[in-house]
Amino acid sequence: MSVKFAVLGHGVVGSGVVELFYKNKNSIEKRAGTEMDIKYILDLRDFPDSPYKDKFTKDFNDIINDDEVSCVAECMGGVEPAFTFVKACLEHGKSVATSNKELVAEKGDILLKAAKEHNCNFFFEASVGGAIPIIRPLHRCLAANDITKVAGILNGTTNFILTKMYNDNMPFEEALALAQKLGYAEKDPTADIEGHDACRKICIISSLVFGKHVYPKSVYTKGISKVQLSDVAAADVLGYAIKLVATVTRQPDGKILPAVMPMLVSHENIMAGVNDVFNAVLVYGDGIDQAMFYGRGAGKLPTASAVMGDVIEAVKHKVTVFSQSWDSADNDLFVDDIDNFTSRWYFRVPAGSDTPEGSYEHEDGISFITEDKLTFTQAAEYSAKINALALIPVLD
Amino acid sequence: MSVKFAVLGHGVVGSGVVELFYKNKNSIEKRAGTEMDIKYILDLRDFPDSPYKDKFTKDFNDIINDDEVSCVAECMGGVEPAFTFVKACLEHGKSVATSNKELVAEKGDILLKAAKEHNCNFFFEASVGGAIPIIRPLHRCLAANDITKVAGILNGTTNFILTKMYNDNMPFEEALALAQKLGYAEKDPTADIEGHDACRKICIISSLVFGKHVYPKSVYTKGISKVQLSDVAAADVLGYAIKLVATVTRQPDGKILPAVMPMLVSHENIMAGVNDVFNAVLVYGDGIDQAMFYGRGAGKLPTASAVMGDVIEAVKHKVTVFSQSWDSADNDLFVDDIDNFTSRWYFRVPAGSDTPEGSYEHEDGISFITEDKLTFTQAAEYSAKINALALIPVLD
């Protein structure tokens, strides 16, 4: 018997899923243990030249009402209509594999509940870190660990821009324009450069690791648009690279503290070497100490590869995989306030200021890193007191 | 109902499994979906002060004849008696999770067959890369990819020594003595420094990725004992770090070519930043482009964490997971000869030699990297012709 699945959306990722499936059909079927085929591709646009033009439909009802379709790859992006479509699929017992991080970050708890109730699966490996296997290793291979902290470079666009600033001394605006020219950044780059994309991904990771849904609105998020070339250069001299880091830490009181911010990453840290559009996720646990997962965080085939891997899993698991799930949660009780974020801090102050030993004086001021750890509030107060021109936390 | 398992061997890894299990028992049981306990610990030594002393046995028959034991963690090391014990467990339908790379590299095909025939599982995540989840991501999350090449830093001891040579200009013998002092190297360090340990691990990876058993004797293996400080320093100036790299590549004719050798890794490659006792595995596929998995490749709790993760998997999967398997194979037909290994090469020649532009002259000679790719045989011939003092392939 051949398993039939549908692909929702024929944009970059959706068309990649179709391409990769037919390219590696034999080995995919071997892995899945069954013959497989795509029965429908949903898109409102026409693709008269596609070799699969007979599979296209503009009507979602064709898919939802077809009992032969047991699995759906959702590659549309955005909360709606993806949420309505995915929920309907799950309620009809059709497993869903999605690359849509916005959907998972905003509605994951609801969709996981629907999957459980209808004994099918909602898989989302492709929603974080593109091609990098991170969701499944996190929930399965690390099952024996008490995970205390995760830190990641989760947005390829901002990492490309910061790499250009670092390697080529290219100002932010110019690096952004280049990223747009190369297709790494959208025309409206807000979601990337202001950290919203990374925020959605750390929400998904936090929810999975700590078992309760963390919503994007609960996460302090700061982008890279204010990062200055002089700080990138000064941080380098002090032994650090500036990266947009998404972190989540379990606090001593059991609450968790997720955040997205530019941070100084020590050259000794393997994450400092993650450049260009690559992503990486560093996981800290009591058994493993630390492990990192690295790869292309976006792009047609890398993301399609993760979606397709989930489709294969869905075909193989005909009942709900409970452990890859989390519950709805009141974030006020569970998510700590950013005021309790604690780290060492990088400061840049005007020339002539009184600064500690080991400071680096350059043409845009004097840069130094505090020896002591300060909370977010303490750092802001100290910054005002010393008339700091820049303050950036250090990832420890 | 509570699931009972046994731990074979109470050395570093075995005692780590016991420690980690009782430390995280609650969350492990939640992940496994059932209550669990250790019923036996097999070791010939006495542990009168252990809090689990009632569980110790010196008689393997206690375990094999106890129907209540459904799963076994094998942490003894070496081929025998581990092979006899593990095979007996599988033949009695008891799933096995092992950290024993020698066992998997030499006898994996036989044990996987036994597991299939008795509808249980033989899992070995801990045998490669210690804590790093690599076996499961490789076979599962990358299921949709055509994997063409894998390159890894798979031995922590040699990576520690090479890091000391690079960072501290410490000669090989001194770095080895330090590794022994710190407990990173055995008294007899042959298996590590001559590459045998890395060889076993690339055998396991090759077998899993390409579906046929690759035996250690089929793999060209060269260790790091001949690596000179002057080459480490010269490679750095030329833009490379010297690492002990285990690779496997699919050749144009479909054969595969595994090898273990010191290689030059470009500073642009994320693997060049993998230092100290850390391991990393870089995977190349048509969908993902490249992905890297990084973490502690050895040590008590990291390895125990991987074993425990497999025990949880074994508890959850009561039938054989077929896809994580491979077949016996005639390596003469499947494994290519090292003579067909092709790369650019680093040469060091005596002062006064005629060398290409971009060469680096230093007190121990002149170092350069060929622009053209040469086979293993061509490189050796050229080396003899120019009286080379060192030749090392470049990882491309």
Give your account of this protein's structure:
2 copies of one chain form a homodimer. Helices cover about 35% and strands about 25% of the residues of chain A. With about 400 residues, the first copy, chain A, is of the alpha/beta class. In chain A, the strands form 4 sheets. In chain A, strands 3-2-1-4-5-6 form a 6-stranded parallel sheet, with helices on both faces. In chain A, strands 8-10-9-7-11-12 form a 6-stranded mixed sheet. Chain A has a 4-stranded antiparallel sheet with strand order 15-16-14-18, sandwiched between helices. The longest helix of chain A is centred in the N-terminal third of the chain and has 17 residues, at about 100-115. At the A-B interface, helix 1, helix 2, helix 6, strand 12 and helix 12 of A face helix 1, helix 2, helix 6, strand 12 and helix 12 of B. Strand 12 of chain A pairs antiparallel with strand 12 of chain B, so a sheet runs across the interface.
